[in-house]
C-alpha cells in the first residue's frame, strides 16, 4: 500500500502534464493560423458565388471596402480551364503568373476536383488573397468536363457576359501550353491584334491555333453577336479563326514574326509553346531534329513542366535520336529527305506569300 500514494502522484503528474501540454498546444494553435481561416472564408464565399449564380444573373465581385483585385488591370485576364486535377497545375499556374506581365489577373475554371487541387497549395491561396488569382467552379448548367463542352462554353456569349465582365484582353492557355521566361518579348506587345496564337502551317496567314492565344474580347463579342456554333463541330479556335479572319476591322498579324507560340510550325524564340496532349503527338517538323530539340529546351527549360519526358540514359541502345533505333547511328538518307521536305515547305510558303502581296 505504501506505493499507492506514489503511483497516484505519478498518475496525477502525468495527467497534469497532458493537460498542460494540451493547453499549450491549443494556445499555440489559437495564435498560429490567423491566415488560414481568412483564406478559407473568402475561398468558400467565392465558390458559393459561382455555385449560386444562374447563367442569367451577372456575377458581381464583392466590393465592400478595399478590393485587392484593384491592384491589377481588370481588362487583362489569363484563363485556364481544366477539369482534371493534374499534379502540375500549381507550379504551372505560378510560372505563368511570373512570366505574364504583373498587371494581368488569372482565373482558373475547373471541376470541384481540379479547383481543390489548385486551391490547396499555400502559394495559390496567397495569390487568391492578394487578388491575383480566382478559382471557379462554374454553376449549372455550364459544363467543362470534355473538350466539346469547353468549346460550347467558349463560344457562348453568356459565358463572357456572366463570368468575364470588363475583360478586353483574354490570354487563353491550357494545361499543355506554357510561356517561356527567356522570351525577350512581353505579352503586352501583342495587345493591338484581335487574335494571335500559333500558326498551323508555314503559309498560315492567321495564327489561329488557340492552345496559347491572346484574344480581343470586343472582337469575340462581335463574332458571337451574329454567329452561333453548332454543337459537335469545329474546335472553338478553328471556329473563331475562320470568322475573325474575315471580320471587317479585325487585326490579325501579317507574318510569322508576330506569331505568339510554336505548335505545328517552328520559329525561333517564341513567346511560348503548345504541346498538344503533353507530347503524345509531337509534330516532326518541330521536334524531330535532336539539335533543334536541344535548342528548344535550352531556350525554354520550363517545357519540362508540361511534357512527358524520359531521361536520356533510359533510351534504348542504338536510339538514333530521330525516333528510330538503328545500331549504325542516324540514317543519313532519312535525315536528308526530312531536311529537303522542310526546305521545300518553307520555300513554297515564301513563294505563296510573295505572289499574294
Ligand atoms: C489596362 O491596360 C490597358 C492596355 O495596356 C490600358 O490602356 C489601360 O489604361 C489599363 N487600365 C488601367 C486601369 O490601368
Ligand atoms: C447544344 O448543347 C447545349 C448543351 O451543351 C444545348 O443546351 C443546346 O440545345 C444544344 N444545341 C443544339 C442546337 O442542339
Ligand atoms: C534509311 O532510310 C531510308 C528511307 O526511309 C530507307 O530506305 C533505308 O533502308 C534506311 N537505311 C538504313 C540503313 O536503315
Ligand atoms: C513559285 O510559284 C510560281 C507560281 O505558282 C511557280 O511558277 C514557280 O515555279 C514557284 N517557284 C518556286 C521556287 O517554287
Automatic annotation (TrEMBL):
<keyword id="KW-0472">Membrane</keyword>
<dbReference type="Pfam" id="PF18922">
    <property type="entry name" value="DUF5672"/>
</dbReference>
<dbReference type="InterPro" id="IPR043729">
    <property type="entry name" value="DUF5672"/>
</dbReference>
<feature type="domain" description="DUF5672">
    <location>
        <begin position="134"/>
        <end position="274"/>
    </location>
</feature>
<feature type="transmembrane region" description="Helical">
    <location>
        <begin position="16"/>
        <end position="35"/>
    </location>
</feature>
<protein>
    <recommendedName>
        <fullName>DUF5672 domain-containing protein</fullName>
    </recommendedName>
</protein>
<keyword id="KW-1133">Transmembrane helix</keyword>
<keyword id="KW-0812">Transmembrane</keyword>
Amino acid at each position: 500500500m505504501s506505493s499507492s500514494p506514489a503511483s497516484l502522484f505519478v498518475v496525477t503528474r502525468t495527467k497534469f502534464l497532458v493537460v498542460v501540454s494540451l493547453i499549450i498546444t491549443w494556445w499555440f494553435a489559437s495564435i498560429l493560423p490567423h491566415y488560414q481561416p481568412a483564406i478559407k472564408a473568402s475561398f468558400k464565399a467565392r465558390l458559393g458565388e459561382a455555385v449560386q449564380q444562374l447563367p442569367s444573373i451577372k456575377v458581381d465581385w464583392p466590393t465592400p471596402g478595399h478590393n485587392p483585385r484593384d491592384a491589377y488591370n481588370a481588362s487583362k485576364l489569363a484563363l485556364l480551364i481544366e477539369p482534371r486535377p493534374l499534379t502540375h497545375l500549381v507550379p504551372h499556374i505560378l510560372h505563368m503568373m511570373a512570366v505574364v506581365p504583373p498587371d494581368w489577373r488569372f482565373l482558373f475554371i475547373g471541376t470541384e476536383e481540379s479547383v481543390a487541387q489548385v486551391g490547396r497549395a499555400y502559394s495559390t491561396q496567397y495569390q487568391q488573397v492578394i487578388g491575383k488569382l480566382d478559382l471557379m467552379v462554374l454553376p449549372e448548367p455550364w459544363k467543362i468536363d470534355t473538350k466539346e463542352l469547353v468549346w460550347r462554353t467558349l463560344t457562348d456569349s453568356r459565358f463572357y457576359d456572366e463570368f468575364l465582365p470588363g475583360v478586353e484582353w483574354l490570354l487563353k492557355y491550357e494545361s499543355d501550353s506554357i510561356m517561356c521566361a527567356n522570351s525577350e518579348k512581353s505579352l503586352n506587345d501583342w495587345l493591338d491584334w484581335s487574335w494571335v496564337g500559333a500558326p498551323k502551317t508555314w503559309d498560315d496567314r492567321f495564327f489561329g491555333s488557340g492552345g496559347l492565344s491572346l484574344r480581343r474580347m470586343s472582337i469575340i463579342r462581335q463574332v458571337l453577336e451574329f454567329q452561333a456554333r453548332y454543337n459537335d463541330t469545329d474546335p472553338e479556335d478553328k471556329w473563331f479563326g475562320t470568322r475573325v479572319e474575315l471580320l471587317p476591322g479585325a487585326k490579325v498579324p501579317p507574318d510569322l514574326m508576330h506569331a505568339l507560340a510554336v505548335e505545328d510550325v517552328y520559329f525561333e524564340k517564341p513567346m511560348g509553346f503548345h504541346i498538344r496532349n503533353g507530347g503524345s503527338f509531337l509534330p516532326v517538323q518541330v521536334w524531330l531534329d535532336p539539335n533543334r530539340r536541344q535548342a528548344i529546351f535550352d531556350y525554354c527549360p520550363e517545357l519540362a513542366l508540361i511534357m512527358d519526358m524520359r531521361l536520356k540514359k533510359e533510351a534504348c541502345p542504338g536510339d538514333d535520336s530521330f525516333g528510330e533505333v538503328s545500331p549504325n547511328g542516324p540514317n543519313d538518307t532519312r535525315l536528308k529527305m526530312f531536311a529537303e521536305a522542310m526546305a521545300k515547305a518553307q520555300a513554297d510558303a515564301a513563294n505563296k506569300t510573295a505572289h499574294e502581296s
